[in-house]
Design a protein that fits this description.
145 residues; mainly alpha
Protein backbone atom coordinates (compact mmCIF):
# COMPACT_ATOMS: atom_id res chain seq x y z
CA UNK A 1 0.00 0.00 0.00
CA UNK A 2 1.45 3.37 -1.07
CA UNK A 3 0.28 6.55 0.62
CA UNK A 4 1.23 9.79 -1.06
CA UNK A 5 2.31 12.62 1.27
CA UNK A 6 2.90 16.17 0.13
CA UNK A 7 6.53 17.25 0.46
CA UNK A 8 5.43 20.64 1.74
CA UNK A 9 3.00 19.83 4.54
CA UNK A 10 2.33 23.51 5.34
CA UNK A 11 0.78 24.06 1.91
CA UNK A 12 -1.40 20.98 2.09
CA UNK A 13 -5.04 21.65 1.22
CA UNK A 14 -7.82 19.22 1.78
CA UNK A 15 -10.21 19.18 -1.15
CA UNK A 16 -13.95 19.12 -0.52
CA UNK A 17 -15.37 18.87 -4.02
CA UNK A 18 -13.82 18.81 -7.48
CA UNK A 19 -10.35 19.50 -6.09
CA UNK A 20 -11.45 22.74 -4.40
CA UNK A 21 -11.10 23.58 -0.74
CA UNK A 22 -14.17 24.59 1.23
CA UNK A 23 -13.24 28.28 1.02
CA UNK A 24 -12.68 28.09 -2.74
CA UNK A 25 -15.95 26.20 -3.24
CA UNK A 26 -17.99 28.73 -1.25
CA UNK A 27 -16.48 31.76 -2.97
CA UNK A 28 -16.81 30.20 -6.44
CA UNK A 29 -20.51 29.49 -5.78
CA UNK A 30 -20.97 33.09 -4.56
CA UNK A 31 -19.15 34.48 -7.60
CA UNK A 32 -21.11 32.31 -10.02
CA UNK A 33 -24.41 33.16 -8.33
CA UNK A 34 -23.78 36.91 -8.26
CA UNK A 35 -22.57 36.88 -11.87
CA UNK A 36 -25.63 35.00 -13.06
CA UNK A 37 -27.93 37.28 -11.07
CA UNK A 38 -26.38 40.44 -12.55
CA UNK A 39 -26.50 39.06 -16.10
CA UNK A 40 -30.15 37.94 -15.77
CA UNK A 41 -31.22 41.27 -14.27
CA UNK A 42 -29.45 43.40 -16.86
CA UNK A 43 -29.89 41.15 -19.92
CA UNK A 44 -33.13 42.69 -21.13
CA UNK A 45 -32.09 46.29 -20.46
CA UNK A 46 -28.55 46.49 -21.89
CA UNK A 47 -28.01 43.19 -23.70
CA UNK A 48 -25.92 40.12 -22.99
CA UNK A 49 -22.47 41.55 -23.81
CA UNK A 50 -22.75 44.67 -21.69
CA UNK A 51 -24.37 42.80 -18.82
CA UNK A 52 -21.35 40.47 -18.81
CA UNK A 53 -19.06 43.52 -18.80
CA UNK A 54 -20.92 44.84 -15.76
CA UNK A 55 -20.80 41.45 -14.01
CA UNK A 56 -17.03 40.93 -14.33
CA UNK A 57 -15.94 43.73 -11.94
CA UNK A 58 -18.38 42.38 -9.35
CA UNK A 59 -17.49 38.70 -9.80
CA UNK A 60 -13.68 39.08 -9.97
CA UNK A 61 -13.12 40.30 -6.38
CA UNK A 62 -15.44 37.63 -5.02
CA UNK A 63 -13.56 34.91 -6.90
CA UNK A 64 -10.20 36.36 -5.87
CA UNK A 65 -11.22 36.18 -2.20
CA UNK A 66 -11.46 32.42 -2.55
CA UNK A 67 -8.48 31.66 -4.76
CA UNK A 68 -5.81 34.36 -4.35
CA UNK A 69 -3.15 34.02 -1.66
CA UNK A 70 0.06 36.00 -1.19
CA UNK A 71 2.50 35.23 1.63
CA UNK A 72 -0.25 33.43 3.52
CA UNK A 73 -2.65 36.39 3.28
CA UNK A 74 -5.98 36.24 1.52
CA UNK A 75 -7.10 38.69 -1.17
CA UNK A 76 -9.04 40.90 1.24
CA UNK A 77 -6.06 41.37 3.54
CA UNK A 78 -3.67 42.02 0.65
CA UNK A 79 -6.09 44.51 -0.89
CA UNK A 80 -6.72 46.37 2.39
CA UNK A 81 -2.99 46.59 3.10
CA UNK A 82 -2.37 47.86 -0.42
CA UNK A 83 -5.05 50.53 -0.10
CA UNK A 84 -3.70 51.57 3.30
CA UNK A 85 -0.21 51.87 1.87
CA UNK A 86 -1.53 54.12 -0.87
CA UNK A 87 -3.89 56.37 1.07
CA UNK A 88 -3.01 56.20 4.77
CA UNK A 89 0.77 56.38 4.72
CA UNK A 90 2.17 59.45 6.37
CA UNK A 91 5.27 60.97 4.83
CA UNK A 92 8.47 59.96 6.55
CA UNK A 93 10.33 62.95 7.95
CA UNK A 94 13.97 62.79 8.90
CA UNK A 95 14.74 64.28 12.28
CA UNK A 96 18.35 64.00 13.15
CA UNK A 97 19.65 63.67 16.63
CA UNK A 98 23.13 64.97 17.16
CA UNK A 99 23.50 66.37 13.67
CA UNK A 100 25.62 69.33 14.72
CA UNK A 101 27.90 67.19 16.85
CA UNK A 102 28.33 64.76 14.00
CA UNK A 103 29.14 67.55 11.55
CA UNK A 104 31.66 69.09 13.94
CA UNK A 105 33.33 65.69 14.41
CA UNK A 106 33.55 65.19 10.66
CA UNK A 107 34.98 68.67 10.13
CA UNK A 108 37.54 68.13 12.92
CA UNK A 109 38.56 64.82 11.36
CA UNK A 110 38.89 66.45 7.93
CA UNK A 111 40.95 69.28 9.44
CA UNK A 112 43.33 66.81 11.07
CA UNK A 113 43.64 64.89 7.80
CA UNK A 114 44.35 68.11 5.88
CA UNK A 115 47.03 69.12 8.41
CA UNK A 116 48.62 65.70 8.17
CA UNK A 117 48.59 65.90 4.37
CA UNK A 118 50.14 69.41 4.32
CA UNK A 119 52.75 68.32 6.89
CA UNK A 120 53.60 65.36 4.69
CA UNK A 121 53.89 67.58 1.60
CA UNK A 122 56.11 70.05 3.48
CA UNK A 123 58.38 67.27 4.72
CA UNK A 124 58.62 65.88 1.20
CA UNK A 125 59.56 69.31 -0.18
CA UNK A 126 62.13 69.76 2.57
CA UNK A 127 63.64 66.35 1.80
CA UNK A 128 63.74 67.17 -1.92
CA UNK A 129 65.50 70.50 -1.21
CA UNK A 130 68.12 68.77 0.96
CA UNK A 131 68.75 66.17 -1.72
CA UNK A 132 69.03 68.93 -4.32
CA UNK A 133 71.51 70.87 -2.19
CA UNK A 134 73.53 67.70 -1.49
CA UNK A 135 73.64 66.87 -5.20
CA UNK A 136 74.82 70.43 -6.05
CA UNK A 137 77.54 70.27 -3.41
CA UNK A 138 78.69 66.89 -4.70
CA UNK A 139 78.74 68.18 -8.26
CA UNK A 140 80.82 71.23 -7.17
CA UNK A 141 83.35 69.03 -5.39
CA UNK A 142 83.61 66.74 -8.40
CA UNK A 143 84.35 69.69 -10.71
CA UNK A 144 87.14 71.00 -8.46
CA UNK A 145 88.89 67.72 -8.01
Amino acid sequence: MIIEINKDIEKYQESVAMGLTAKQLVYSILALGSGCLIVFLLYEKIGLTFSCYVAVPVVAPIALCGFYSYNGMGFREVFTRYMRSIFRNKPLVFQSSGYREMVSEIRAREKVERKAATRKVKEERKRMRREKVKSRIRSLFKLKV
